[in-house]
Amino acid sequence: MTATTRNRPEFDTVQLTIEPKEAQELIEQSLKGLQSSVTEDGILLRSSDGMLVAILHDGSPTDEQRRTELAYRVAPPSELATRRGKKIFETLESHRV
Description:
This protein is α+β, with helices and mostly antiparallel strands. It has helices spanning about 20-30, 80-90, and strands at about 10-15, 35-40, 40-45, 50-60, 70-75.
């Protein structure tokens, strides 16, 4: 879990078998209207109104084993950002560890 989401219960975290950049490309192909920025925590994905939706963090223990940690919004259920978080998870679910 990244420092940005560590103490935030509105995020769930899963490990992916692909690199953060590849995950970002898959998300951009599936969902429109997200803004991304690169920080020390990883690639932040935000809705058009600025709400944090997901974070892609390089979680690789070694260069041989490429892993990405996906932290995605799961609450509150009524928020657009939460629905987008679920769609991001569904887009990347086939790459889950």
